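Late entry, written up from scratch paper. The run itself happened at the end of the previous shift, but nothing got recorded in the book at the time, so transcribing now.
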Amino acid sequence: MRNLTKALLRRLSKSVAEPAGPPPELIQHGPAGERTSITHYDRYMEICAQAASDPGVFSRFRSETAYLEVLDHVTQSEGAKYLKVLRRDYPELLRDSLDELRANDIYGSPNTYQYPDVGQISPTTLRYAKVLGDLSRLFGDLTGRRIIEIGVGYGGQCRLITSRWPVQSYTLIDLKPALDLARVYLGKFANDPVMGFDQFEFKDPEADFVGPYDLCISNYAFTELSREMQEHYVGGVIRDSHAGYMICNFISGRFGIDSMSPEELLALHPGAQWLPEEPLTHPDNRILVWGRPSRER
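Output as recorded:
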């Protein structure tokens, strides 16, 4: 697969406002057909690498500008919208697991806000919690399942999932600097009685993926990739996953990236369907889901 090492599993701001786009110097240019994601953000990868190797940087990486420009940019008001959904649909998470949710914010000094009846928590953690609730509602108990996530950031979504269910394996896919950071972050919870650490597999985009997987997850990352990169994952991950949950946006064309259309995504897996994104963070966003985790071991 040509030039996959340039792929950046990039999450853009999910604001309802039209995305302004990155400065020209931040766009990764290359020969026609070789650009594999919307942007290649050097400063983002640098802060990931520094946080993974320098405890001082790790202690504050989630409040660093270079990191906030790519991840952890859920606003206070968006956090309130996620909290509203949690209160309505998944009140048990707030009632029984609030301390477990807030533990996501122990490291990295994220921006947190005071929310009524919840206290200090980061908006990004509230988004991860809402996804956690969706997974429980759609797919039930994930104990013993093989999960794979495309685009993992610092590992926050993974940490919430694996602290709730003792999974058989959890494969994290991202570029090396992000994977190194996720490895350090998740390692901080290695003594967790549920999640442990041995079940994690850290793989870069060029790796061979050995399915089948019970559940494939992607929060925005998959639909920001080039068609070539998407097809790499389709063959080795998507079609080899019994179930899937992918939050999708459709803005890559504005950056000269040829990505799969909603119709093509819907055809990737038998029985796939669109669900509305709630709260809606961009007018075109939606969630692609399919299947149920296999009961076979």
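The longest strand covers residues 243-248.
(Scratch paper discarded after transcription.)
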